[in-house]
Amino acid sequence: MVVVVMISIVALLAAPSFTEARNDRIAFDYARQYQQVLVQARSRAAGTGSAHLVLMTPGTGGRGVIRAYAALDGTTGGGPNPVASCRANPTQWATAEPEITDYRTDRVLGGNWVRFINFAELNRAGVNETMDLRATLTVGDGDVGSPSAPTTHLAVCITPSGITYVGSGGGAGAAVAAMRGAPPFTGIAEARIVRGTGGLRRLVTISGGGAPRLRSE
């Protein structure tokens, strides 16, 4: 009987640690999903000859969504075909900007201008709500650790040659417009997957010259 009681006490003491470990693992998994959407966009741009736009927005629940799209030329009958430029057509990404609820991938969207490629979403009900898991976004001109500004929306576009353009703003349209007017990106943008209940922050770091990196702090 004494042994049973002691085991019960140990289990009760360990329960918060198990919960914390689970929550950290979930936060890491979502950060890795954000990273993989960006990695896939970069590799697909090089492999398909199509510029790829990655949009990071709050989504319908406000906690964060990342979506990737490939640029198409709008043709029918034998098309649509890849478009290599992130910025040549001012309305190229117009059908990608609104928030969506249909997350079926590999779909060509309105007017044959974009193909929906991939996503990760933090607004699903369940443990995400319990943890208050969300993505906060920042962008700056310097290296990792240098001053950066918070933003609600990020647009990251990668050309087939690997050139990256980044724009930020108060909405997806504003972020895309800023991206179209920006020079090749040489700063640092980050998506920080954080928990309202505390714990480690998982950071997906985007630079102009290489693949996105995943780190913790």
Explain this structure:
This protein has 217 residues and is α+β, with helices and mostly antiparallel strands. The chain has a single domain (2-216), classed as minor pseudopilin epsh fold, CATH 3.55.40.10. The chain contains three helices and eleven strands. The protein has helices spanning 2-48, 127-131, 172-180, and strands spanning 52-57, 65-71, 107-108, 114-121, 133-140, 149-151, 153-158, 164-169, 188-195, 202-207, 213-216. The strands form two sheets. It has a six-stranded antiparallel beta sheet. It is globular and about 60 Å long. The model is unreliable at 10-15 (pLDDT under 50).
Set out the fold topology.
Layout: H1 2-48, E1 52-57, E2 65-71, E3 107-108, E4 114-121, H2 127-131, E5 133-140, E6 149-151, E7 153-158, E8 164-169, H3 172-180, E9 188-195, E10 202-207, E11 213-216
Antiparallel strand pairs: 1-2, 1-7, 2-4, 3-4, 5-6, 5-9, 7-8, 9-10, 10-11
